[in-house]
Amino acid sequence: MSTIAIIGAGASGMMAALTAAEDPGSRVLLFERQNRAGRKLLSTGNGRCNLTNLHAAPEHYHGGTADFVRPALAAFGVEETLAWFREHGLLTVAEPSGRVYPLSDSANSVLDVLRFAIAEKENIRLRPAEPVLEIRQAETGLQVDTEFARVTVDFVIVACGGMAGAKVGGVKDGYELLQGLGHSRTALHPALVQLTTETDWPRALKGVRADARLTVTAGRTRLAQTEGEVQFTEKGVSGPAVFDISRAVSTGGEGLTLTLDFLRDYAIREVYDLLCARRKAAPHLPAGDLLTGMLHNRLGKTVIRYVNQKADVPLAELPDDALKAVARACKDFVLPVRGTEGFDSAQVTAGGIRCAEFDPATLESRIAPGLFACGEVLDVDGDCGGFNLQWAWSSGRLAGRIGK
Ligand SMILES: Cc1cc2nc3c(=O)[nH]c(=O)nc-3n(C[C@H](O)[C@H](O)[C@H](O)COP(=O)(O)OP(=O)(O)OC[C@H]3O[C@@H](n4cnc5c(N)ncnc54)[C@H](O)[C@@H]3O)c2cc1C
């Protein structure tokens, strides 16, 4: 009989607990700080829970090397995860992008199947509202001090998650517990988060969505590029494509620039020709409507102001140079970047406990025998689209095997 303490009943901790409990000779104590298990899961995917992605593979992960995530993903990848959830009663559906959601479209369904499975296991004891304060090496095994008790166990799995989503349980505890046992961490940055930029233009466009190519640069160096939906906000830009490049911004230092190309499928010459054709066809149209039909109306009017043209001037009065400037602004709409929103709004933490301090084949600590870690507390963060939860399931499964 071995006793295993799992710290954190989030995505990875619940998966680790259910895996460890498959061995009838194990007794699992699952400690959770909050009043209930899996609170963050309910907020994922805007309440729909994007639980994995059909394209999950090491290249979608950052932080520790691709080699670190490989064994966990190979042992329990997308296929195994979907089969596991199906066996536990969850039906899922995949979108063309590869994102997988519960068929019910409700994150509750994902949490419910995990909760029910835990309740069925006589050898798992869930202890909610019981934060773990310290873990120490004991003469045999490890000693776990919670707010209410001290227990000595054979193995500990730290599954406390990261700092992201502070309102739904993001805390520093996991890093501190592991640092107390001799582990070290990298710098922590919010990722999959909104960008804050110079605000004049975003504020004027608040609520507008646009399809664009986004490029982040530091001076002449391109740090990241992606394509997709951008949403303008009071303080900057948000949306799936923005999340994709937010890691590059939060780790990229000061003085960055975001360039938006709103007509990415058209060369600048084609855009200019279209504008000239419009001027010829509708010379009395006000300049403010030059881009009507090409861009969202408010965006089109904002681009005209961006190049310092008056909206009420008839198109016939716009010289070629003005049309060239408008064409350029459609392709190179530049926003100086201030930074990102904080951990409260972020979906994931970039950075964490150094992966090199854990064996990727088992997720056991190389520093403290009997200690394991899984999920976001490690220096692993995935792209937007279900990759972070897949890491939680894969790493929780691997850690829960306790090296077997
Ligand atoms: C708003 C939001 C939306 C997201 N949407 C998605 C999505 O759709 N798809 C996706 O793949 N990823 C998404 N993510 C990311 C994903 O939720 C996380 O990467 C994942 O939950 C990490 O799993 P984890 O088990 O490591 O940590 P968590 O799920 O955060 O669980 C950690 C648990 O440990 C507990 N804990 C912490 N300290 C202690 C302590 N001292 N003692 C006891 N318990 C403790 C916490 O209360 C928490 O319940 C989203 C995140 C947020 C914030």
3D architecture notes:
The protein is elongated and about 85 Å long. It is an alpha+beta fold and 404 residues long. A six-stranded antiparallel beta barrel has the order 13-16-15-14-17-18. It contains twelve helices and 21 strands. Helix 1 (11-20) runs parallel beside helix 12 and helix 3 packs across helix 12 (387-400). The model has no long low-confidence stretch (mean pLDDT 97). Flavin-adenine dinucleotide (FAD) binds at residues 7-13, 31-34, 39-40, 43-45, 49-50, 131-132, 159-161, 164-165, 168-169, 171, 173-174, 347-348, 375-377, 386-389, 392.
DSSP helix fraction: 25-40%
The small-molecule ligands in this entry are: flavin-adenine dinucleotide
Average residue-wise pLDDT: 97
**How many helices does DSSP assign?**
12
Distance between the termini: 14 Å
Tally of strands:
21
Q: Class by helix and strand content? A: alpha+beta
- Report the sheet-strand fraction: 25-35%
Q: What characterizes the major β-sheet?
A: 6 strands, antiparallel, barrel
Gyration radius over CA: 25 Å
Strand order of the largest sheet: 13-16-15-14-17-18
Taking pLDDT < 50 over at least 5 consecutive residues as the criterion, the unreliable ranges are: none
Q: Rough shape?
A: elongated
